[in-house]
TrEMBL record, chain A:
This is Na(+)/H(+) antiporter subunit B. Keywords: Cell membrane, Membrane, Transmembrane, Transmembrane helix. It is a multi-pass membrane protein. Belongs to the CPA3 antiporters (TC 2.A.63) subunit B family. Pfam families: MnhB (PF04039). Residues 5-126 form the Na+/H+ antiporter MnhB subunit-related protein domain. The keyword Transmembrane applies. It is found in: Cell membrane. The chain crosses the membrane at residues 12-30, 36-55, 67-87, 107-132. It comes from Psychroflexus planctonicus.
Automatic annotation (TrEMBL), chain B:
The gene is mrpC. This is Cation:proton antiporter. Keywords: Cell membrane, Membrane, Transmembrane, Transmembrane helix. It is a multi-pass membrane protein. Belongs to the CPA3 antiporters (TC 2.A.63) subunit C family. The chain crosses the membrane at residues 6-21, 28-49, 75-95. It is found in: Cell membrane. The keyword Lipoprotein does not apply.
Automatic annotation (TrEMBL), chain D:
Keywords: Cell membrane, Membrane, Transmembrane, Transmembrane helix. The lineage of its organism: Bacteria, Pseudomonadati, Bacteroidota, Flavobacteriia, Flavobacteriales. It is found in: Cell membrane; Membrane. This is Cation:proton antiporter. The keyword Membrane applies.
Length: 136, 117, 782, 507
């Protein structure tokens, strides 16, 4: 699998795909996309990289164990879900910044939530795939 | 088209169940995936299908002006797909591990826990 | 709420009298080890003795016709309360329970001296006594049932007291099983009666008597009550648990299985005879069952050589007599029954205690080996002799009075008087024999050498039986004592008009005296002629094959085989069998509804047209599915699965679901990667199933698939107008500030779904991780 | 305030599962955290229970979207009672796990998944949205898959494959039913469904939908003829895991059946007959299955099936009295069944076997523990006045009222067979002389444990036994509660009103 072409391509592809996944995440509120799809795309990017450069390289590139992303992402989602409770609003109530921000548009708790989803999806998918590749 | 899709739905259910009824662990997984797809299609179809009108509000507008596809089933299916992914991944690993520990792919060999001990 | 109730009412003494036993039982769990020295054990006797005296105090009040009623609210929602009624009948039983209890408690302290589990034994006995008191004092039928079950459980523990012996355990289980069935009958009966009369109070049922007798469920209620009474009081064909129960230590046999617990069924029948009695069904059934039980067990005792066996069968016979008398139902019969309850308690308890002494000192209960013990156990021999006299109805013992009453009752019957009397006489003759064999035979004749060194045990053991039989003689000579204190009040609570009837020892020369004489003479003859031998016992044991016990065991074995067959048929270990059953069940249910309700016509006008693209996608999908199912290559199957997935993407794209298409695409990619990673480690396909089975499964699957298709088409015919969709469309941007409605639903409208969904993913990942990384060594198990 | 209150036990469990993931490496932290988390959740659930008990049904419209547009959480009396019971069981099992589950398993996320499982259960009880219910079900089953296979022993895997497949099938059937329901009504909120479904012309389709739900939930609640996964798998994982499964997992299926058949599909004769038939057959099948087993945990597994029949039967009779009986039985059963499997774990620890043939002598060797164990065992049988007895009154009375003598007979049969089975267990495991057992080399016998560890094994059992005793002796309270719940269920307008009451003041 570790052909030169694939390796070169993936060196190039990984940042592009990651950027793309972020883009998908951010635009999700307006166009097709969102945390799930973004996360899955990012995961595929890393998987491709692992195929091309070997699991070890990808892992060093990642620096942290992908599993760590799961609690982090879930915490993010959890926090954005429970924050409204402190304003005496029900769980998951959307909170919005009063002014839209350029590029992203309206900034609200929904985006934090979606980012949490994004991280969890990356973490979970990579944990699954990496564990299997190590064991296989 | 709905008729054709309804038939395909039925076919996916039938194929899923048939594969689950086989003795091979691999076929069991394939059956599970097929059945999952069948269910997704059923929900999609029963949410009434619409061609070429994605549920995205046009850039200039604030509400929909014309007919659009029902977004609710789409959201449900999206959730279901991701959940199924988790379950299927787990199932694949479970099968792999089972094969490794038991040394067989034959489901009929997996009946010691039902025997009286 | 519960606590105040108990605090305010704890001093209402009747509840306390019951709780006392339970407190002692619980206390013994914790301080049990201190009672193992002899005097501590004796001091426990203070419990029944105190209660006995307490109940004695009530005699004047009750005799004057008063009924003491106490009620403590417990579970009003169910109409269940702790209401106690002390009338003549309850008082008679309470005195018997506590009186015999006192003697048994004292006896036990010597009988089981130094036993490792003496504390447990006392705990069980105390619990039993409490339960039994509760049973006879309860006015509420449900709380009566509560205590009824407690007696069964205590009995289970007492029979299984020697728990390392398999026979003990088996007997305990049998007894519990039989009385358990009875208990459930009682529960059903109680609930039925309660729902008919709208109250569980026995006193209130008595008020509604006429209504009950007319009710369509009268027979059913009676059957339930009979079921309870017959099992508890060991009536044919449920009698066999009682001889088995003799595995328990002798004090238990004395207390539970002759004097008190087995009389609970009798108590129930007596209690209900004013309410449900006096119908033909009631009387006939009781007479029949009683008579069969009497004769059957009286006949059986002839062949026994084990002293406790003889006593067990004679107890069953006595219980039969009681049921029989209640069945006769006349005033004379009820009085006879009440007197006989006391008589029987006195002599049978004594005989059991005596047997216990013999067993304890000589180590055997085999009647063929025992003789001449009077030389070493004189006081016991005296007690035995008197007990035999009472049992045989020899004047001037109270037994004579009792027997007279029985004959009087049978002779007084308007129909079949002769037949009934003959049955009673035959039984009495055999009981006479039993009493003499148990009470006299071991003490007469020549003392075998082996027993010369036997010596008299502690007075705690021989004094109780002596006391009881003495009471029997005193009552015989002064029957009015018995009448005023015990039988009179009890009679008045059961019979409307009890005036003008008095117990007498001497009625003058009449037919009844003649019958008594016949009983006496024939019984004595039988005793001298018939010597129990093992040969006879073996002979009768061969007949056991057709006894109710064997039949029941045969049936339970059959039931067990059936259970195995049934369970293994359904739970046979084959996953495909399970799936097929479940899907089959679903298919049958769905098909039933579909074909009984639907016309299968279809209105196609609302459906969209077919285009070439769609047909192409459809063909691709169908082909891929079929290929997945039938290919022989795993890799090809996985690949065509992938094709199915990508066809889905196209479909989603085509039908306005871009988000779905993207998700499906990514997920599909990952799944295929996963599959490929794992697949190399898995074996190749084998052709495992037989073709017939494949065909069956194919038909089942296709049936299921077709039903789903029909269902889908039918649902598509209905109008659907989704209110929520419209709301989302209108407010997605205005309120939730998003234009991709699917995404807005996911993160806002239905964000909780998503929160849980990512948790699912996490757990799945954790599961995969642990499944692959965690390897337990076999030695690390659990 | 109510915004936070109803969901607090749920959020606490979620929070602690996150914290536990962060504390992945430290076993000590994991143990302390789980005990703290479960204690807080227990306290919170008591608070919620009292709140609802005093102020009536509470709702939370998540995202502040009014029903039926958002996901509504409904804390009615039934839901919060079950949440309370879940937290009680969870608390007991967590403490039991600390000692009884081996380190290797604990190191691989046992507690984290355990909290996810409890969260899922609580969510399933509270949610008022049918698709959300599906999602909660999924977190429950995936957690249970992980817990049942954690450790990957041979028989665990065998059990897990069956458990997985059949539960997955159940989920798919559930999802199918959901799709049909949405296709018919265009809504997912259960209160809304209840209103819309009666308006539908084609009631046969509704009936089909109900049958699909019945089968989907029926598999989860292990009724005849859908129970096969249960006896195949419940005895394979560590007993702490089986305990939480036995106590709660099948009951969540029962809960879903109760909810769906009192709120959405009401008064269909065919369905009631079907429910009653499977109830009677479950009692029968489970009872005779338990009779012939030798493994003590299998005996208990079959008893679960038997007693599920009692509850489903009460639902099938569909009168207030019967439903009250079902609810009472449910309350009793959750506590007792959890305890039973903890007991089986303790017995294993005492004797290193679960085989009835080899067990024995417990009563002689550990009399006080034995008497403690006798409480749940006899509660299960329903020896009056212990907890299992009282609901039978309601069930039998309802059976007489509806003149369904088959069901009355089945209840009596089930009670009798439970009595015989438990007496047999007692006689074999506690009375008989033990047979020699080959122990694993590393097996740590009870006597070798430290005092604190012994306490951690005994305390949960004692705690649950005390709860059982309370249910038995304080039956008046439980019955009043059950009747109240039954009345709420039979009059589903209350539920609907509670969901929609704030519709007017939407934001």
């Amino acid at each position: 699998m570790k052909t030169i072409i694939l390796r070169t391509a993936s060196d190039f592809l990984l940042p592009v795909l990651l950027l793309f996944s972020l883009f998908i995440l951010l635009r999700g509120h307006y166009l097709p996309g969102g945390g799930f799809i973004g996360g899955l795309v990012a995961a595929i990017a890393f998987v491709l990289d692992a195929f091309a450069n070997g699991l070890k390289n990808t892992k060093t590139l990642l620096k942290i164990h992908p599993g760590f992303l799961m609690p982090v992402g879930l915490s993010l989602a959890f926090v954005s879900a429970v924050t409204p409770l402190f304003f005496d609003l029900p769980l998951m109530t959307g909170l919005w910044a009063s002014e839209p921000i350029p590029v992203i548009g309206n900034l609200g708790s929904a985006l934090f939530f979606d980012t949490g989803v994004y991280l969890v999806v990356i973490g979970a998918s990579l944990t699954i795939i990496f564990t299997i590749s190590e064991a296989a | 088209m709905e008729i054709l899709l309804a038939v395909i739905t039925g076919l996916l259910y039938a194929a899923g169940i048939y594969m689950m009824l086989r003795r091979s662990l691999v076929k069991l997984i394939l059956g599970i995936i097929l059945l999952g797809n069948g269910v997704n299609l059923l929900i999609f179809l029963l949410g009434r299908i619409t061609k070429g009108k994605p549920p995205i509000i046009p850039e200039e507008a604030k509400v929909f002006q014309e007919i659009y596809a029902d977004p609710v089933p789409q959201a449900l299916i999206l959730t279901a797909i991701v959940i199924s992914f988790g379950l299927q991944a787990f199932a694949i690993i479970l099968v792999k591990r089972t094969y490794k520990v038991l040394g067989t792919d034959d489901l009929d060999q997996l009946n010691t826990t039902d025997e009286d001990s | 709420m519960i606590i105040p109730i108990f605090v305010t009412t704890i001093f209402k003494s009747m509840l306390l009298s019951i709780l006392a036993g339970l407190f002692v039982a619980v206390g013994l769990i914790f301080i049990g080890k201190f009672i193992k020295n002899k005097w501590a054990a004796v001091s426990l006797t203070a419990l029944p003795l105190g209660l006995f005296i307490y109940f004695l105090n009530y005699i004047p009040q009750i005799a004057s016709g008063e009924i003491i009623y106490q009620k403590i609210s417990w579970i009003p929602s169910f109409g269940v309360d702790l209401s106690f009624q002390l009338d003549g009948l309850s008082l008679l039983f309470s005195l018997m329970i506590t009186g015999v209890g006192t003697l048994v408690f004292a006896y036990t302290s010597a009988y089981l001296k130094g036993h490792e589990y003496l504390d447990r034994f006392y705990a069980y006995l105390s619990m039993f006594m409490a339960a039994m008191l509760g049973l006879v004092l309860s006015d509420n039928l449900i709380s009566l049932f509560v205590f009824w079950e407690l007696t069964s459980i205590s009995s289970f523990y007492l029979i299984g007291f020697n728990n390392t012996s398999e026979a003990s355990r088996k007997s305990a289980l049998t007894a519990l099983g039989i009385t358990g069935i009875g208990g459930l009958f009682l529960l059903a009966g109680a609930l039925l009666l309660g729902s008919i009369t709208d109250s569980y109070s026995i006193a209130e049922m008595l008020q509604n008597k006429d209504f009950l007798l007319q009710h369509e469920f009268y027979i059913l209620a009676v059957i339930f009550i009979f079921g309870a009474a017959f099992t508890k009081s060991a009536q044919f064909p449920f009698h066999f648990w009682l001889p088995g129960a003799m595995k328990a230590p002798t004090p238990v046999s004395t207390y539970l299985h002759s004097a008190t617990m087995v009389k609970a069924g009798i108590y129930l029948l007596l209690r209900f005879s004013p309410i449900l009695g006096s119908t033909e069904f009631w009387n006939t059934t009781l007479i029949l069952v009683g008579a069969v039980t009497m004769l059957y067990s009286a006949f059986h005792l002839l062949f026994r050589t084990d002293l406790k066996g003889i006593l067990a069968y004679s107890t069953i016979a006595a219980l039969g007599i009681l049921v029989f008398l209640i069945g006769l139902g006349t005033q004379e019969a009820i009085i006879a029954a009440l007197v006989f309850i006391v008589v029987h308690a006195l002599y049978k308890a004594s005989l059991f205690l005596i047997t216990g002494i013999i067993d304890h000192e000589t180590g055997t209960r085999d009647i063929t080996k025992l003789a001449g013990l009077r030389k070493v156990l004189m006081p016991v021999a005296i007690a035995g002799f008197i007990a035999a006299l009472i049992s045989g109805g020899v004047p001037p013992s109270i037994g004579f009075v009792g027997k007279d009453l029985i004959y009087e009752a049978t002779l007084g019957m308007p129909t079949n008087a002769i037949l009934l009397t003959v049955i009673a006489i035959v039984t009495n003759i055999l009981l006479f024999y039993a009493g003499f064999v148990a009470g006299v035979k071991p003490f007469t004749g020549k003392l075998p050498e082996t027993y010369e060194k036997v010596h008299l045990p502690s007075w705690l053991m021989w004094f109780p039986p002596l006391l009881m039989v003495s009471a029997g003689m005193v009552f015989g000579i002064f029957p009015q004592l018995l009448e005023s204190a015990f039988v009179g009040p009890a009679t008045s609570s059961l019979v409307n008009d009890s005036e003008g009837f008095h117990l007498k020892l001497w009625h003058g020369f009449n037919t009844i005296l003649g019958l008594s004489a016949i009983t006496l003479v024939v019984g004595l003859l039988l005793y001298f002629i018939l010597k129990p031998t093992h040969r006879l016992e073996n002979f009768i044991n061969k007949l056991e094959v057709i006894s109710p016990k064997s039949i029941l065991f045969f049936l339970t074995n059959g039931f067990e085989d059936f259970s195995k067959g049934w369970t293994n048929f359904f739970q046979n270990g084959y996953l495909r069998h399970y799936i097929a059953t479940i899907v089959g069940f679903l298919v049958v249910a769905l098909a039933f509804i579909i074909f009984s309700n639907f016309d299968l016509s279809l209105d196609v006008s609302s459906f969209s047209e077919l285009t070439t693209y769609e047909i192409a996608i459809a063909i691709m999908m169908i082909g891929a599915v079929i290929f997945t199912v039938f290919t022989n290559s795993r890799l090809a199957a996985v690949a065509s699965m992938g094709v199915v997935g990508f066809a889905f993407c196209l479909l989603f794209l085509f039908y306005s679901a871009p988000d779905l298409a993207m998700t499906q695409f990514s997920v599909d990619t990952l799944t295929v990667i996963l599959f490929v990673l794992v697949l190399y480690r898995l074996p190749k396909y084998l052709h495992l199933s037989k073709n017939v089975l494949r065909l069956e499964h194919g038909i089942l699957s296709l049936a299921f698939g077709s039903l789903i298709t029909i269902l889908v088409l039918k649902v598509l015919q209905e109008d659907q107008n989704s209110e929520i969709t419209n709301f989302y469309a209108e407010n997605s941007y205005l309120l939730a500030k998003g234009k991709n409605v699917v995404n807005v639903i996911l993160v806002d409208f239905r964000g909780v779904d998503t929160l849980v969904e990512i948790s699912v993913l996490i757990v799945a990942a954790l599961g995969v991780f642990s499944l692959l990384k965690l390897r337990l060594k076999t030695r690390d198990k659990k | 305030m109510s915004n936070l209150a109803i969901l607090s036990p749920l959020l606490i469990h979620l929070l602690f599962s996150i914290l536990l993931m962060f504390a992945w490496r430290s076993l000590k932290w994991q143990k302390s955290l789980t005990i703290i988390g479960n204690s807080i959740a227990l306290a919170a659930s008591i608070w919620v229970f009292i709140l609802v008990y005093e102020h009536g049904t509470q709702t939370v419209q998540s995202g502040n979207w009014q029903a039926p547009f958002g996901i509504t959480f409904v804390g009615d009396m039934l839901a919060v009672t079950l949440v309370l019971l879940t937290c009680i069981s969870g608390f007991a099992v967590a403490i039991f796990s600390v000692v009884s589950v081996i380190k290797a398993r604990l190191k691989f996320g046992y507690f984290s998944v355990f909290h996810f499982l409890l969260m899922g259960l609580i969510g399933a009880f509270l949610t008022g949205d049918i698709f959300n219910l599906y999602v909660w079900f999924e977190i429950i089953i995936i957690s249970s898959f992980v817990l049942i296979s954690l450790g990957g022993e041979k028989n665990q895997l065998e059990g897990a494959v069956k458990y997985f497949t059949l539960n997955f099938l159940a989920s798919m059937i559930f999802l199918t039913a959901l799709g049909v329901l949405y296709g018919l009504t265009g809504t997912l909120n259960m209160a809304d469904l209840s209103q819309k479904i009666v308006l539908l012309e084609n009631q046969a389709l509704v009936e089909i939908c109900a049958v699909l739900f019945l089968v989907g939930f029926g598999i989860k609640s292990a009724v005849f003829p859908l129970y096969f996964w249960l006896p195949a798998s419940y005895h394979t994982p560590p007993s702490a895991v089986s305990a939480i499964f036995a106590g709660l997992l099948t009951k969540v299926g029962v809960y879903a059946l109760i909810r769906v058949f009192t709120l959405i599909f009401v008064g269909d004769l065919f369905l009631e007959t079907l429910l009653l038939s499977i109830a009677i057959l479950s009692i029968f099948s489970g009872g005779i299955g338990a009779l012939i087993q030798n493994n003590i945990r299998k005996v208990f597994s079959y008893l679960i099936i038997c007693h599920i029949g009692f509850m489903i039967g009460g639902l099938g009779l569909f009168t207030t009295v019967a439903i009250a009986g079902t609810i009472f039985y449910l309350i009793h059963d959750i506590i007792v069944k959890t305890n039973l499997f903890l007991i089986s774990g303790l017995i294993y620890r005492l004797r290193s076997t679960s085989s009835l043939q080899k067990l024995g002598g417990l009563y002689d060797q550990y009399p006080k523990i034995s008497l403690l164990l006798a409480i749940p065992l006899f509660s299960l049988v329903g020896i009056p006045p212990l907890s299992g007895f009282w609901p039978k009154i309601s069930l039998i009375l309802a059976g007489f009222e509806q003149q369904n003598y088959w069901f009355v007979g089945a209840v009596i049969f089930g009670s009798l067979i439970t009595l015989v089975v438990i007496a047999k267990v007692w006689s074999e495991a506690f009375w008989k002389e033990p047979k020699p057992v080959k122990k694993w080399k590393k097996f740590v016998d009870f006597s070798q444990l430290k005092q604190i560890q012994k306490a951690q094994l005994i305390f949960p059992i004692a705690f649950l036994s005390v709860v059982s005793l309370y249910i038995g002796f304080g039956a008046e309270h439980i019955q009043q509660l059950s009747e109240r719940i039954a009345n709420e269920l039979m009059d589903n307008q209350q539920y609907i009103d509670a969901v929609f009451k704030t519709r007017t003041d939407a934001r």
